[in-house]
Design goal:
255 residues; alpha/beta; 9-stranded mixed sheet; 7 helices
């Protein structure tokens, strides 16, 4: 099957995302990959705004354009107290646990017969129109572009790393277009669907204590990796290699 006939499932977990939806859907419409080969899946969790209702209002229009579109709701009753940023250390383990569960719920509900899964965060606001083609053209099973807050700026998604977290995408910019990674981020992440079917998930618990690639000492004082980083370690244990594209940048919204 040629790359331009392979089907792609774009999966996006959403929470309090109303302010990003216009930009998110405008970005999807700029993709040069055929919309007839793309399906969309959303999981809304624990929102305090109208994220769920606003996406549902778009379903009829979206279903006329794409191969399929679905949204599900699954609340985990997790909220970071007001006044604390989401990266506050005390909340990282429960936050990453919920993120992993949300991704897994969405994957298990949405994946059908598609060839690829593209994880795309709702607050990624710009990327090349040919992004999907470029990721697929690498021929790799798991590939992650370079997520930044300004083009040419420092790495935003610090979950993509190798060498025990000492080397991140920013350190690899300007070199080869495709580099080996031990862990990946989830802002934009392409995974061959059969790899997910083989059992690759987002661990919602510290995973990989026996794998020499994990960080020691771990910044969260856990023995293993969780969520997207845990997925990277699990991929290694399953015999798959993660790859990064440090010179292919995608833009995250300012925080």
């Amino acid at each position: 099957m040629t790359a331009n006939r392979e089907t792609v499932l774009i999966l996006t977990p959403v929470k309090n995302a109303a302010r990003f939806l216009d930009t998110y859907f405008a970005g999807l419409e700029k993709f040069t990959y055929p919309a007839s080969l793309i399906s969309l899946g959303f999981l809304e969790s624990d929102s305090d705004d109208e994220t769920y209702e606003l996406i549902r209002e778009r379903l009829e229009h979206l279903r006329r354009r794409y191969a399929g579109v679905e949204i599900w709701r699954r609340n985990f009753n997790f909220r970071i107290p007001e006044g604390f940023p989401r990266w506050t250390r005390a909340f990282q383990i429960p936050r990453r646990k919920v993120l992993a569960k949300a991704r897994n719920h969405l994957l298990f509900r949405a994946l059908k017969e598609q060839d690829w899964v593209l994880w795309l965060d709702v607050d990624v606001i710009d990327y090349p129109p040919g992004l999907i083609e470029r990721l697929i053209a690498t021929g790799r099973d798991i590939v992650h572009p370079h997520c930044v807050k300004r083009y040419g700026g420092p790495t935003f998604d610090l979950n993509a790393w190798r060498d025990h977290g000492r080397v991140r995408m920013n350190d690899l910019r300007g070199g080869p277009d495709l580099v080996r990674l031990d862990a990946v981020g989830g802002t934009v992440l392409l995974i061959r669907a059969d790899v997910h079917r083989d059992g690759l998930i987002f661990p919602c618990f510290p995973y990989g204590a026996a794998n020499p690639a994990i960080r020691r000492p771990h910044p969260l004082r856990i023995d293993g990796e969780m969520e997207t980083e845990g997925l990277g370690i699990l991929a290694i244990d399953m015999g798959y290699q993660c790859w990064g594209m440090p010179n292919l940048e995608v833009l995250h919204a300012p925080e």
